[in-house]
Amino acid sequence: MADKFTVGVLTSGGDAPGMNAAIRAVVRTALANNMNVIGVMHGYEGLVNGEFRPLGARDVGGILQRGGTVLLTSRSKRFMEPAGQRDAIRKMNEAGMDALIVIGGEGSMNGAYALSQKGVKVIGIPGSIDNDIWGTNIAIGTDTAMNTIMDAVDKLRDTASSHQRAFLIETMGRNSGYLAVMAGIICGAEITLIPEHPITVDEVAVAVEDAYQRGKTHAIIINAEGSGIRTTELAQRIDEMDVGFKTRMTILGHIQRGGSPTAYDRLLASRMGVKAVEALVEGTHGMMTGLKGKGVDFIPLADVISNKRKVNMEYYHMVKVLSR
Ligand code: F6P
After folding, report:
1. How many angstroms is it from 14 CA to the middle of ligand 1?
2. CB 3.0-4.6 Å disulfide test: which of 86, 154, 227, 231 passes with 193?
3. Which residue intervals of the chain bear CATH 3.40.50.460?
């Protein structure tokens, strides 16, 4: 009798809330389809090192609601080199791994594509708070991060309006302005600074002064970490320009990556985890699961890595209109 089909699963890059829900869905769907599951620890770094452990149904119990990733993660430099990828494939073969499911962001999908080009059966699942992955409306973790940002900015607004201040708030997102623009809408910012649409300190100052003149009690400015202007410098310069409000600033930082996943992220992660295993059952690979409309579909990894996701500029302009 042929050995059972064995699938490996790893999480890679920045952790995102909902990754555990995806791991759980992968493991339980694979077991339901009579497969073995191997958990790869520490992302691609663990794949190169052969840090493997078998995963059963009980091993993924009680993790659905937990942030972070129980498989741990890394940003592996070694795996980016062909020699590292070759060693990883050797370790997979030694462990009898027939396929690999990679849960992670843009860089992780690049790694997944590289493996698939070398003959490995790979399925990617997009997980990143940045929502910068082409081919899916939204990645696992983004919704939770947006809710975390919303909660933080709501709190900052309380103190901002009590003291009649302008608050500059920095969001994560690496080279993407997605989180900042969405935060601008859901938190009622005057203006957002994003990498995709550079603006000057003077333009920010005009927006803040305008808010003051319109009788606002405070102003919220969201600065994406990749906007090109450091939040500390921006806050200082706006303060010096005397725009009506005194300024303060807060860098939200890694708080945005933590916490229990929202209902939306748990559902998305569960659906994508199930779909990823179903792909392997059907003999499909070299694909990423992506949310298209209301359904989870398969998108070729080749397309995912060769396209850049763009921020919808309609949302960017909406921030200003809604701040009247
Ligand atoms: O990709 C997720 C992310 O949180 C980005 O928004 C941010 O630029 C980066 O990771 C930070 O990475 P690290 O935790 O390695 O400092």
Report:
1. 6
2. 227
3. 143-257
Query: 3: which 2 tokens?
Result: 């050995």
Task: Report how far residue 22's alpha carbon sits from residue 265's, in angstroms, rounded to the nearest whole number.
Answer: 9
Catalytic residues: 130
- 132 within ligand 1 shell (Cβ under 6 A): no
DSSP classification of residue 291: E
- Chain segment 183-209, per-residue pLDDT in tens: 999 999 999 999 999 999 999 999 999
Question: Best mutation site among 69, 257, 309 for ligand 1, i.e. most ligand atoms within 8 A of its Cβ?
Answer: 257
**Model pLDDT for residues 234-249, shown as the tens digit of each residue:** 999 999 999 999 999 9
In this structure, what are the phi and psi dihedrals at residue 263, rounded to the nearest 5 degrees? -55, -40
Domain spanning 143-257: CATH superfamily = Phosphofructokinase domain (3.40.50.460)
In this structure, which topology does domain 6-141+261-306 adopt according to CATH?
A: Rossmann fold (3.40.50)
Other Cβ atoms within 10 Å of 116 Cβ, number: 21
Task: Read off the amino acid at residue 270.
Answer: S
Q: Is 127 in the pocket of ligand 1 (CB under 6 A)?
A: no
Least Cα distance to 127 among 117, 138, 116, 118 occurs for 138
* CB burial readout 180-219, b (16+ within 10 A) else e: bbbbbbebebbbbbbbbeebebeebbebbbbbbeeebebb
